[in-house]
Amino acid sequence: MKFSIRGLGTATPPHSVAQVDAVQAAQTFCCSTDQQRQWLRLVYLRSGIERRHSVLLENGDAGIEGRQSFYPPQRDPEDRGPTTAQRMQRYEREAPLLARRAAEQALARAEWPASEIDHLITVSCSGFVSPGFEFSLIRDLGLRPNVSRSQIGFMGCHGALIGLRSAGMFSRAEPDSRVLLCAVELCTLHQQYGFHQEQIVANGLFADGAAAIAGQVVPRFDPGWGIFRHETVMLPDSAQCMGWRIGDHGFEMRLTTEVPELIGRSLRGWLDGWLAEVGLRCEAVPTWAVHPGGPRVLHATREALDLPEWALEVSHEVLRNYGNMSSPTILFILDQLRQRQAPLPCVALAFGPGLSIEAALIL
Known about the structure:
By secondary structure, the protein is an alpha+beta fold. It contains ten helices and 13 strands. The model has no long low-confidence stretch (mean pLDDT 94).
């Protein structure tokens, strides 16, 4: 049996900013010297990103200074910007709207009425509120009030794959059930002020977006994209490499330079062992969906797996056009690959706090 993707929807906020323009705004939050401004500019322009979307952008026409009012320029070295409470208030307002657009598209593509959904799984690591955006989805989409609800929280960039693993487990336990998964992240609510290099790297990578999947369990050889197996691993001695902490002024991202090195050292051996269990080798996998944590993460993955440059083209494309949207990003990549009728099997990979790796085999 496999968890079949019957419908996949994506959504981004209506306004976006070119990465080259984002440099100017970021310098007003983070830099006090010309040397700092130059370093930040290089980080942003070497990110592999051309454009990112944000719920904080208020129009698409004004100069960068006039396009958002949530983050004022840094007043003094102690200024850290909006409080966490202010950021969560914005999350509470914006997350349901973006989630609804993605979920409506997924249901429309599946040709399922919302009333037939049995399980709703939501994924997010960029905001907390209770009741969460799942309540809004139930109300606004017309889901049954007795739909079961599960929330995958604070799992980072591989959260959607963890959500899909849960979706498959629900579906196998109740083979006639239908599942709706929705991941939404508003990462730009966590812009950090001050010159802290790890946080500036995060400021320059992350963006806002949502994605949803409507699916159900089907026989393994049913045509169409479906997730057949999952695997996960937590790399030893890696807890310091990637993580989030809730600070007084947003969530503070930790993303060290060790991440690509760990991936390069650890990925191939682990993945070879897992694929061998189903009679596959890396060389025989024609399609790869790799979460673009950044250009160095993609490069390390390609080198570790000895893939040709074109193998991660869609991952680079999503990074270039949308930035790193955390958990929904891998679903954006799967959506592009499905639309292009990429050959199967496909291996999806995403990296999260720990450092931990999630993999999914798609047949």
